[in-house]
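[Meeting: bench + compute handoff]

Bench side (C.D.) handed over the final construct sequence. Compute side (W.E.) agreed to return the predicted structure before the next meeting so the bench team could plan truncations. Sequence as handed over:
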Amino acid sequence: MSYVSVNQLTKRFGDNTVFENIEFSIEKGEFITLLGPSGCGKSTLLRSLAGLNPVDDGQIWVNGEEITHQVPQQRGIGMVFQSYALFPNLSVSDNIAFGLKMKSMGKAEIERQVNRVIELVELKGKEQQYPHQLSGGQRQRVALARALVVKPRILLLDEPLSALDAKIRKHLRQQIRDIQTEMNLTTVFVTHDQEEAMIMSDRIFLMNRGEIVQAGSPEQIYTQPANEFVAGFMGHYNLIDADSAHALFNVTTPHKVAIRPESIYVQEPGRQYGSHISAPQRGTIKRHQLLGNVIRYQVEVAQNELTVDLLNRSSERLMPVGSELNLLFNLNEMQPVRA
């Protein structure tokens, strides 16, 4: 049996069904990300696992124990919120120690455990400061330490990095992943950020309108989208209708076909290409964006506007709007996707 099993889980608020008959399982030590657009039900699902939102139907099992109707304090689950939810009148040490004090743990043991996690989240020297004296990243690490110190069976993270600036966010997501790996801690992380999910996860559960529309490794989700929604949400897939796919590539399918921007190449004179590469298609550049090491072009090909990503090897590679070029498509990386 899996470490976490969710069976036929349903949650409603009045007449609004947030999700219905959700099912999934998680292995011990896995890092799972609930990914999806705002309003898809991912945070409500996370809060249901924590016991903060009672469910209407279904079961939640952890390590062979049903916890569906247990109060949050009995579940052995730690949760970190986007808003930090720190006590403003308590120091860093006292905020972290709060859960241990609720367990009536001895003072010496509390101090030992608090010092251990303070070192783990790199807050040494901040023990006696208060939340208002800390940066956003430091406050988030206090919230993480408070969840870790009670040694939870599962760690739940509800968009904990969304309020932070890009540099701190990158550092903290790596720190969270390192700590999670070191502690072999079963973790469920909520985000709407595709890059974050791709970097941090063992598996991604991609949600839309209260359903898990695809579950798999980051590579599977990115390279094998189950439908148009997944292809549109993950990266910048080009979706080409069936008639255009047949005209351009001699591909016959009742569905649209999806191809990633990096799987489209600009033909280089004199270079030989394999049989998995399409015949050249003439296109005109409509727009371009410089994205650091990538140049993103919008190219019109036979009334289809396609996104093409090329490595930014030098400034000479930037082709001006209106330029014409021959595009080649990697047919091995083109696949039909259902609606």
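W.E. noted at the follow-up: DSSP finds nine helices and 18 strands in the chain. C.D. will use this when planning the next construct.
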